[in-house]
Design a protein that fits this description.
CATH class: Alpha Beta
Largest sheet: 7 strands, parallel
Strand content: 5-15%
CATH topology: Rossmann fold
Bound molecules: NADP nicotinamide-adenine-dinucleotide phosphate
Number of helices: 11
Mean pLDDT: 92
Distance between the termini: 70 Å
Number of strands: 7
CATH architecture: 3-Layer(aba) Sandwich
Radius of gyration: 20 Å
Order of helices and strands: HEHEHEHEHEHHHHEHHE
Number of domains: 1
Shape: globular
Low-confidence stretches: none
Length: 319
């Protein structure tokens, strides 16, 4: 191969990658697209959410969040292969470790740059989570990680109507149900609007009770539900809701008998992110895996009557 051939090949490669980058940039900054971020999306339910969004919504651009850029890029390539079509222009990876303030801020800065000008984010799915590890790490990733992401991305969200979906779990209501009703924590998690200090008060509960109950995962998800409500109250022009994906076979539940595929777990988060009916519904609610309203203080099975108790969104204390 001559030097001329090598120069020609490098020229073609440069043109192709520039064209690809331009296509990506035009979709990520095109104001007609709904641009969304999904955290913890290199596998499991998060990855399935990205795929479902691209398959079912041709006007969505997805940033697939992954704490490992290598695993994230692999997931992007898998999704492009499965979805096909123009999907490669509608997905990009963003390195995002929800347990690191620095990583979350860098991810938000990168996305802000790609949004360009006055472009806004349509929504966030806070999906990243862990179930194993020291109690403080579980609470830090699942609860504080959710809050870190929200705080960093709030300025980028479109208003009115930007959406935040917090992926909770049925273990949250189970946790609250298992507490004594005389317990101050029970009242706080059942009626988060009574928490002294509002959103900061949830942080205090997280720190105080982090390793007190032997189930930091369930506790962290109960905190996510309390946070979800208080966040919705503090951001009335956004659509903020929590969902449980259901009992899904992923690395998180490996060996525990779950059989439903991640694509099924993606249904509630994608519904909460995209369903037009939620534009005119009270926000700050928690939905079961059947996408029906559920209480945050006791378990409701899919198919059971929809919960109709107080939403707390209209309560006036501790906003
Ligand atoms: N599976 C279920 O039955 C079930 C039920 C209820 C709720 N959920 C919730 O659904 C969500 C997804 O769970 P899954 O079942 O899909 O579990 P999974 O397969 O283990 O996926 C968890 C994802 O979160 C990521 N992650 C963990 N720590 C992170 C961090 N610090 N920063 C960024 N990403 C991080 C993981 O990345 P790495 O690959 O780098 O570890 C992975 O991509 C979680 O919030 C979970 O609590 C799951």
């Amino acid at each position: 191969m001559t030097v001329l051939h090598l120069l020609l090949i490098s020229f073609i490669l440069a043109c192709t990658s520039t064209a690809f980058a331009e296509a990506l940039n035009s979709h990520s900054s095109n104001n007609n697209m709904k641009r969304v971020v999904v955290t913890g999306a290199n596998k499991g339910i998060g990855k399935a959410c990205c795929q479902k969004l691209l398959e079912e919504h041709s006007d969505v651009f997805v940033w697939l969040g992954s704490r490992s850029s290598e695993r994230g890029e692999e997931a992007v390539q898998d999704i492009i292969k499965s979805v096909g079509g123009d999907c490669q222009d509608r997905i990009a990876m963003v390195t995002l470790d929800v347990s690191s303030e620095e990583s979350v801020l860098q991810a938000a800065a990168k996305i802000q740059q790609q949004l360009k000008g006055d472009g806004k984010l349509y929504g966030i799915i806070n999906n990243a989570g862990i179930i194993r590890g020291p109690d403080h790490s579980v609470v830090d990733t699942n609860y504080f990680g959710t809050k870190r992401v929200v705080n960093a991305f709030l300025p980028l969200l479109q208003r009115p109507g930007g959406r935040i979906v917090n992926v909770a779990s049925a273990s949250g209501p189970y946790f609250v149900q298992g507490l004594s009703q005389r317990d101050t924590l029970y009242k706080a998690l059942k009626e988060p609007w009574t928490i002294e200090g509002g959103l900061d008060g949830v942080d205090e509960l997280a720190k105080k009770y982090c390793d007190q109950y032997g189930s930091s995962y369930a506790f962290s998800k109960a905190l996510v539900n309390a946070y979800n409500l208080l966040l919705a109250r503090s951001q009335p022009d956004l659509i903020v809701n929590a969902v449980t994906p259901g009992w899904i076979k992923t690395d998180m539940t490996v060996g525990q008998g779950a059989t439903n595929p991640p694509s099924q777990g993606a249904v509630p988060p994608v519904w909460a992110l995209m369903d037009p009916e939620l534009e005119s519904t009270t926000t700050g609610l928690y939905y079961g895996s059947d996408c029906k309203r559920s209480p945050i203080h006791e378990y409701r099975s899919p198919g059971d009557p929809v919960y109709n108790g107080p939403t707390g969104i209209e309560a006036t204390s501790s906003k």
